[in-house]
Prior knowledge:
Layout: H1 2-23, H2 28-66, E1 77-79, E2 98-101, E3 103-106, H3 116-120, E4 126-128
Antiparallel strand pairs: 1-4, 2-3
Bound molecules: iron/sulfur cluster (2 copies).
Amino acid sequence: MWTAVILIISVVALVMALVNRTARIRNGEDIDEIRNSLYELRITLKSLRAEWNFKLAKIQVNLLKYQEKIPRDRIPYFITGECIACGSCLPECPTNAITENLLFEIDPALCIACRKCAEICPVGACRPLEEPAGAFSA
Length: 138
Ligand code: SF4
Ligand code: SF4
């Protein structure tokens, strides 16, 4: 609930800043500001989405363990907001648990925690799902 409110406020604030800056384009510096605003907006959305994905994936994993569909001691992997979308992890996954859908994501039901994605990732964005939520923002 509060994350949704923060998301809406952040997006509105960034869009208003962007509109404001767009209205007064005069030179290269203003264009730099617009580009920076777009970058900030992208990072905010990406990080909030990654945080939501993290929370939902944890719930999904707990349900899968409760239903005994995955072993209780398995800790599936998760792709954090630090992902730079290089695509290197996609062909490495032996169970096709990784998909590209705006962000790269791991299906915890398919992940067997083999670590192959973590070993190839250039920015350390593939991590076990048990890490604290704070570690998953961009
Ligand atoms: S840990 Fe292994 S199974 Fe899980 S997403 Fe990464 S490569 Fe795929
Ligand atoms: S290897 Fe890392 S940075 Fe590249 S797409 Fe996969 S998670 Fe993202």
